[in-house]
Design goal:
The complex is a heterodimer of chains A (86) and B (295). Chain A has three helices and no strands. With 86 residues, chain A is mostly helical. Chain B is mostly helical. A two-stranded antiparallel sheet of chain B has the order 1-2. Chain B contains twelve helices and two strands, in the order H-H-H-H-H-H-H-E-E-H-H-H-H-H. Classes of the chains: A mainly alpha (86), B mainly alpha (295).
Amino acid sequence: MGIVASLLAFSASLAIYALTGSEFLARPVAYVGVGILVSTPPLALVLVLALHVARGERLNALITMAVLTVMALGVTLSLLYGRASP
Amino acid sequence: MLLTPILLIGVMLALIPVGFLAALVGIGGGVVVVPLLTLVFGYDVKQAAAIGVVTVVASGITSASRYLKQGLTNLRLAFFLSLSSSTGAIIGAFASLWAPPVALYIALSCVLAYVGVDQVLTRRVEAKRIASGSFAHAPRDALASALSLSGSYFDEATGKLVEYKVSRSLQGLSASVMAGIVSGLLGIGGGVLNVPIMNNIMNVPMKVAVATSKLKVMITACTAALVYILTGRVDPILVAPTVLGVSLGAFMGTKVMNKVRTESLKALFGVLLIVFSYLLLARGLAIVGITLPGV
């Protein structure tokens, strides 16, 4: 769903840009696409975590939680030290 | 840079084969996207790097969701290895502030060349293993059993249900940490290392390794993409055509991958590794002022 929504937003922004030639109008729609796109993987991870918890797979739930923590840590450290993590 | 509809359509069309290939062999595609945007379309290098990372996320989501539906992705294995490679990537990213990259480029180039040649030479072995069902027989691994890492998939090329038993999980985990450190040090996604780690070390069939690698690359790239976006380095208008192109290509790639014979897939991956090996060698030698032909 996330990828479909973001692709729709990107298509809409390109259509707006092609029809009006205005970056000002196209940019917010494209930002929505970027936002949906990058929030999809963390949301998917949270859903998988919930799935593991519901199934009682404690070890796998712990690993998924740790992956989410490492992601958050990577973003925080990169922002703090001003460089992008790979 | 001047954005014209022709340029945006050109970028979109050029990215379709990249997405297709990336979905077929389980890599992110950033190694191809960044030079393509800078050399062919005249994008600024910093902009291209930021767009490249977002593109990898898009290609990863498209492929991973399709492969999950096809029953090819091993979700548990992807998270198990993501934990170690993501940690390694953070260590590598900070170590890159002090470590000289030349030796590392050359070392990784040698590793990729070796694995590439090995993939080409052993391409028929895997087909025989699938036919004989030997992926289901591997040394017992307590950790893999505890995490239920083993699984099965339906191979459309042979029309067989292939069962596989994940083994040597600790060796795979260690290799994954090393791969994460290397990708952090050199700023590459690491997709080229994920597939051989799963396929050669952990007894995972090639197609499952490819599908699982796409999910893993998506998770790693998402962290970097968030940083690029939060620091305002992503131009959404420039991202739009690349994401559309690469996603369309990835979608087509996922339609084809399970139908392709494993020998062909391994040969293609092997050749791609040899090309990457040359590119990394060229990048490393360029630091000391040596230019290789064709780069």
